[in-house]
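ugh ok fine here u go
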Amino acid sequence: MPSRYAPSVPKHEPAQLRLAVDRASHVPLYFQLARQLETAIEDGALTPGTLLGNEVELAARLGLSRPTVRQAIGSLVDKGLLVRRRGVGTQVVHTGVTRPLELSSLHDDLAAAGLEPATRVLLNTAGPPPAEVAAALGLPESARVAVLHRLRLSCGEPVAYLCNYLPGDLLEPSTGELEGGGLYALMRARGITLHSAQQRVGARTGTQEECGVLGEPAGAALLTVRRITYDDRGRPVEYGTHLYRASRYAFEFRLLVRD
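structure:
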């Protein structure tokens, strides 16, 4: 697994926004600017990949000091809405992905939300399963399983690092197939009817290697998912351990009240 993944940087012209600050307001100037930029990102006026003018240009346009502009931009960088790229400038990144907690493909969820999913296959091989995987899939440790490690991206930015194991007699997808769409869609196309899953969601600090792949600083918090998926006959057909960027991703629960 590579130690670092740097997504390609789209080319955009610097955004020309109608920004203004109220100097008579008690609200700090940096906060006024940050809030306007954040609103523009949320409303879609600033789309993912858009380059802002540099701090000197923004400061000159608004009649603000450069430290004020730097503080505003820094607050949005901390929120994960902007990113500073050396040699490129300050760039808008996509807003966080909110995903319902149900049996669905991340690829399909991103596509449905218009977030341009893409997949980079880091490992596609086959071999005997680790003991934990064999137990989860109900296989002997001498069995053959497909081992799939993928980096899922949204609008060019890493979102999740996905490790999946499939029974070898069920499916051994090609790298091209994995890059072309979601795993569940591929399984369904092969006649596998997905029925249910057992899933555990947690969080932990990422390793240096994991954070490097996901584009997070070393030691960043990552969301974890462990999933065993079953077909309509009750057979385990997938074991997955997934890591999600907590700064870009959240699960959404629907809770029902019972008397």
